[in-house]
Amino acid sequence: MITNTELEYKGNLYPSKIVSFDQNVDSVYFYTDNNVILKVTVLRDSLIRFRYTTKGYFSTDFSYAIDDNHTHGYNFLEVVDKTESYQIITSKLKCVIQKSDLRVCIYDLQDNVLLEDELGFHWEESYEFGGNIVKMSKVSKDGESFYGLGDKATQMNLKGKRVENFATDQYAYQKDQEPLYKVVPFYIGLQNNQSYGIFFDNTFRTFFDFCYERRNVSSFWSEGGEMNYYFIYGPQMQEVVTRYTDLTGKPELPPMWALGYHQCKWSYYPEKNVKEITAKFRALKIPCDAIYLDIDYMEGFRCFTWNKNYFPDPKRMVSELSDNGFKTIVIIDPGIKIDTDYFVYKEALEKDFFCKRADGPYMKGKVWPGECNFPDYTNPEVREWWAGLFKELISEIGVKGVWNDMNEPAVMEVPNKTFPMDVRHDYDGNPCSHRKAHNIYGMQMARATYQGVKKYTYPKRPFIITRSAYSGTQRYSSSWTGDNVATWEHLWLANIQVQRLSISGMGFTGSDIGGFAEQPSGELYARWIQLGVFHPFCRTHSSGDHGNQEPWAFDVEVLDITRKFINLRYQLLPYLYTMFWQYIEEGIPMLKPLVYYDQEDIQTHYRNDEFIFGNQILVCPILEPNSSGRRMYLPRGSWYNYWTNERVSGGREMWVDTKFDEIPLFVKAGTILPKYPVQQYVEELEFDVLTLEVYYKEGIEKSVVYEDAQDGYDYKKGRYSFLTFQVIGRDNEVIIQLHKEGKFETNYTHYEIKLIGLPFEISTIAINNEKDSYDKVSYKKEGFLKVAKEFHVVHITGV
Ligand code: MIG
C-alpha cells in the first residue's frame, strides 16, 4: 500500500519531450522520447479521455464501468501544432499539451483555465507486481471545492481531505473512516462558477487528495493499472453529473413498489414471525411494500436453499405475503459453502467456476457458512450460471427481489478482511489478480444477480440491492450504505452519504433507517424515518441483536410520526416516480445537494444538511435531540413552508420552528405537486382523482408528472403518460396549462386542484375557456377544484 506521500517518493518518473504525434479520427496520440504515449480521445465536445502508457504501446482497452450505450460524437475537432504545444480544440474546450513535458492544461473557449497539470502524469515502477504506480497531480486554485466519490462518510465538500478507494466491509464505520464499501472514483471540482468532473477509471486501489497534502494541489493515483481518466466539462454541475451518468450508465425503471417502504431485520424467522410482522403493519395501518429475509432463512447459510424448520413451505408463505401486499426479498451472499452434498458447490466445482489462488488451489475463506469458495463473477460463463440459479427462487417460489451482501468481498477472521491479492480472475478475458478485480467483484456479482432476477421476473421488473459497488453499478442495482450505527452522528452521515451517492451516478440508495448496530432511541428513530422517506431507497434495517426496530417498537408518538411520514411518502409516489424517470432518462440525480442546485451561490458550497428532493421540494432533516427547530440555509428563490403554507424568500440562513412530528420542508413557489391517496402498498387502491397542489407564484413555473403501469416494460413502447403543467401567475390571475404525451391511460378521471398562496379572492374560474364550470359553493366547502383530467387550460381570476 502507498502510505508515504506521493511527492516525497524519489523514484518518480516523468514523461520527457514529445517527439511525434498523430491523429486517428477522434483520437490524438503524443509520443515522448522515453516511450510514454498519451492518447487523447474526444468523446464529446465536453468529454475528453486521457490515457497514458509508459511502455510504448497500449494494452487491451477494457472497462466494466463504461456503458456501451453512452453518448459520443462531437461537433468540432481541430488539432493545432504550435511552437511549444499542441492544441486540441472542440466546440467547448481547448486542451493544450506542452511539447517539452507532456503536461496538459484545459481551457474553456474564453481562455479561462479549467484544470491544469501540476506535475501532471508521473509514475513509479513496481518491481514487486510489475507495471506502475500511476500518479496525476493538478493545480488547485484558491476557492476550489470538491464533491462526489460515492459513499465517503465525511462532509459534502471534500476540500482538505484524502480518500482511499478499496471496497471494504466496514462494520460500524465512523465519520471520516476510510475506505468504505463502494468505489466511485469520480469527483467534481468547482471553482469560479465552473464545474468539471474527473472520472479515474482504474479498478486498483486508488487514492484522491484534495489539497490535503499541499494547499494548491489536487492529485489522484493508483497502485496499478493505467493512468486513464475522463475530463467532463460543465460549466454547470448538473451537466457534469448527467454526462458522467450517461458515460457509466443509467438503470431501467424499478417497479413502483420498490419505491414504497421496506422492512428488514437480521433476521425475521421463522415464518410465524414474518407473518406477525407483516400483519402488524396492516393492523396499524403503516404502509409497507416489502419484507426481507436475512441469512437465517437458508439451510446453514447455503445460498439457494431454505431452512425447512423455519420455512416449511416457502412458496405458500411468499404467496400469502403477496396476497397481503408484501413482496418478499431474500439475501444472497457470494460465499458458497464447501460441502460435497450441496448442489451449488458441486456444480461450481464441476464447472471450475470458483476463484483460484495464483498457484492453483481454490481461494478458500470463512464467511457465514464456514469455509467457502467464491464464484469468479468476472467470468461471463460464471455470471450466466449464477443467473440461472435464481430460477427456482423467482419463478417457482415467487421471490420478488434479491439482496447481495458481503460482496466487497468480505472474508472473516483474516487481517485484510478480503481475498489475498494473488487470487486470479478472468476479468472478461483479461486475466488478472485480485489487486485489479477486487473493486469490481461486488459489481459483477450484482450484475450476474440482476441478469438472473430480471430474466425470471419478466414480464415484471427486477429489484436488486447490493452493498459493494463500482462506478456503473447503478445500471444493475440499488444500494445501501452498509452497517451504520444508531447514533445522531450516523443520521448526519446517512444524509450526506445518500446525497453524495446521488451526484455520483448512484441514484437508487438509502441507509439502514434507525441504524444497523445498536439501539436507537424512539426520538432518533423518528428523526431517521423523517429523513429516510426522502431517500430513493427507504428501508428500516437493524442487526437484531439488540431491541426491536419496527415502527411500533418505541412509543405511540413515534409510531404516529412514522405513519405520518410513510403516508407522506406514499402520497408523493407520483412525484418520486417522476424524479426516477428523469434519472433513468437524463441521468438527473434524484437528490440534489444545494451546491448542485445553485452552484453560483457560494453559500451553498459548504452546506451538508439541506437538499432538494426531486426538483421542487427542499428537505432539511433534524439531526439533534430535543430540537424545536433548527437553523438552515434556504436557497435562492421563493418557497412555501410545507406545514404552514407560509411563503418565504431564500438566499439566506434562517431559523425554522418545527414540532417533533415535522422537519423543515419547503415547496418551491410555482410547483404543482401531484399526490396519490395513501395506500397500504403500491397498487392497493384504484382511485379516480389525482390531487394537484398548486403553489402560487408570480411568473412561470413548469411541473411534470410521469406515470405508467407501475411495473413491466410497456413504458418502453410508449405506454406512459407524461403530463407537463405550466403555471403562470400574475397579481390577479393564475393560468394552469396542461400538455399530455404518451399512450398510457391513467385510471383516474379527475384532478383535485388545491390552490395554495393565492394573493387574491377568486372571482371567476374558466376551464378550457368555459366560465360556467366553476361552482363557488362546492369550492368553498371542499377547498379544491375538481377538473376532468383532459383539460387544457384552467384560468382563475381574482376580484
Ligand atoms: O456479517 O446478513 O450489511 O445488512 O444484515 C454481517 C447479515 C452480514 C451485513 C449486512 C447486513 C446484514 C448482515 N450482513
From TrEMBL:
Name of the protein: Glycosyl hydrolase
Annotated ranges, domain DUF5110: 690-757
Xref: InterPro entries: DUF5110, Gal_mutarotase_sf_dom, GH, Glyco_hydro_31_AS, Glyco_hydro_31_C, Glyco_hydro_31_N_dom, Glyco_hydro_31_TIM, Glyco_hydro_b
Top-level taxon of origin: Bacteria
Domain Glycoside hydrolase family 31 TIM barrel: 251-579
UniProt xrefs under PANTHER family: ALPHA-GLUCOSIDASE (PTHR22762), HETEROGLYCAN GLUCOSIDASE 1 (PTHR22762:SF120)
GO biological process, one term: carbohydrate metabolic process
Sequence ranges assigned to domain Glycoside hydrolase family 31 N-terminal in this UniProt record: 38-209
Glycosyl hydrolase family 31 C-terminal domain residues: 587-673
Keywords assigned by UniProt, alphabetized: Glycosidase, Hydrolase
Family to which this protein belongs: Belongs to the glycosyl hydrolase 31 family.
Any Pfam family hit: Glyco_hydro_31_3rd
GO molecular function terms noted in the UniProt entry: carbohydrate binding; hydrolase activity, hydrolyzing O-glycosyl compounds
Organism: Flavobacterium crassostreae
Keyword Hydrolase (UniProt): yes
